[in-house]
Amino acid sequence: MNKSIATDSLRPMTEVQVRQTREFIESLKEDCQTYWDMVEVGDVLSRDLTITPELVILYADAVEDYTPWYEGWKMNTWRIEGESPFGGAIVPPMMVSHFVLSVQFDHTKPFAIGSVHTMHETELHEPIPVGATVTISAKAVDKYEKRGRRYVRHEVTVTDVNSGLLYMRELRDIMSL
């Protein structure tokens, strides 16, 4: 029996997981910038996201929010209109906020080291219907220093791809080491 451990012995790892883990560890040797150095005021990043009933289910289950307003699905039928005071099923108000981070960081660059989310303000303008496709856009609007620490402020908007309707707006600060 081979006693050597090639990967984490506490859980099985597929060949893909092993390769990705090794690539990640190797990437740590690259020169990385801080978030402050990577972002310039005026930089805008955006992505589209279709909010499927499956995505809503995964989120609602994870945060244990079983409000019937979010149910755009039913067992053995899967997709249904759902019901809420706004018509059909709606997206949990803070769900889309979780996807902002995937927009805010430029995935084509090495991940910035030493960043901490320090401030967050959200304005909800309209309920998002389940099934909508939205554009999440993050714009760097300010860089400032406070008590010797460096911060980058982003303004985030979430709009409907087709109509341009503004669903939500956020301000977020990231402290960069």
TrEMBL record:
Annotated InterPro entries: HotDog_dom_sf
Annotated Gene3D superfamilies: Hotdog Thioesterase
Superkingdom as given in the UniProt entry: Bacteria
Protein name (database record): Acyl dehydratase
Lineage of origin: Bacteria, Pseudomonadati, Pseudomonadota, Alphaproteobacteria, Rhodobacterales
